[in-house]
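Our working data are protein records whose layout never changes between entries. An example says more than a description, so a record of this kind follows.
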Amino acid sequence: MRETDFVLGLVGTGLLPVCWRELNLGRQLNKSVFVMAESSLAKELSKHFPGRVGVIDPSNPTDAEMQIIGYLKTIEAQGDSKKAILALAIIGIGLLMLAPQD
């Protein structure tokens, strides 16, 4: 984690303690942290990561992409790094949307 420039959290149906630890470690190390979460968890996460939480809406995945792009415009990172972050985020959102719902 110390060698990363950015921490991207993708939270589906729940937030495990290990996820909290990784997100908080990123913040403690002064990394750029952005979390994409389902709407049921986004409000709670926003308390801990204000201005750094996007909502995953399965009916409108483009909105999540636009939220990530908006956040990337606010951070210091090289163009290729931003493209890689965006690509990973889109893949993660797609996987969350395709995951079986209980």
